[in-house]
Amino acid sequence: SQQGEEDPQALSIQEGENATMNCSYKTSINNLQWYRQNSGRGLVHLILIRSNEREKHSGRLRVTLDTSKKSSSLLITASRAADTASYFCATDAGGYSTLTFGKGTMLLVSP
Amino acid sequence: KAGVTQTPRYLIKTRGQQVTLSCSPISGHRSVSWYQQTPGQGLQFLFEYFSETQRNKGNFPGRFSGRQFSNSRSEMNVSTLELGDSALYLCASKTGSSETQYFGPGTRLLVL
Question: To 10 degrees, the CA torsion angle through B62, B68, B73, B79?
Fold first, then answer.
């Protein structure tokens, strides 16, 4: 079953705009990760935020985590056409547990 | 380092047949996980192997099985294929202590 639920399911913006995607989850986590997938290919790891962190940055990416609300957001600033992809959040409950993925947000960035 | 490789990349089978997919992890990675991705169910965890032992298993029928070899390469097998097994099968590897998984390009299986 899916742990995370991304919102929105699809997002269409122009180059240069910011894109914000949200993820909600149901159980306690050790960390939350965001992945990108281009055209049904393999997933690329973007960023990991641990349960004791509230915000993390990596280049044009900013991730926030609110464990009290069991939610996270991914902000991509100054979007480029090359950012067009599906974005998934995945939760890790720790130990020998595995990643549990949401259904993803499809982002379309138009030139 | 070379990334995770999966073979074959594309596969067409008919119902009732069986299929074996292969995954070569990044050198030094001893954990290999398999996921099934479909439009309806999204990404679902199949199983994880670490040092040739299945460490975790998802909620899939026994037709889905896997194994890991001493060189950490892994195979998954699906017997008695059903139309619903059509999917992208993704393999991911990581070191034993890492939290980050590295994914291969996937094998796209079409069952007719």
Answer: -20
A13: which 2 tokens? 């913006």
Chains A, B: CB pairs < 8 Å: 51
Nearest residue of A to residue B89, measured between CA atoms:
A42
- B99 and A30: CB-CB below 8 Å? yes
What is the band of A4 on the pLDDT scale with cuts at 50, 70, 90? low
- Give just the sign of the alpha carbon dihedral A103, A19, A56, A45: positive
Give me the amino acid identity at A47. I
B108·A40 Cβ contact <8 A: yes
- Nearest-angstrom CA–CA distance, B105 and B93: 12
Rg for chain B (alpha carbons), in Å? 13
pLDDT digits (tens, 9 = 90+) for A95-109: 766 889 999 999 999
Q: Which single residue is written with the structure tokens 């379309």?
A: A108
3-state secondary structure string, A47-64?
EEEECCCCEEEECCEEEE
Best probe of the B interface among A23, A30, A39, A43, by most B CBs < 10 A, is A43
Tokens of A5: 């639920």
Structural Rg of chain A based on CA atoms: 13
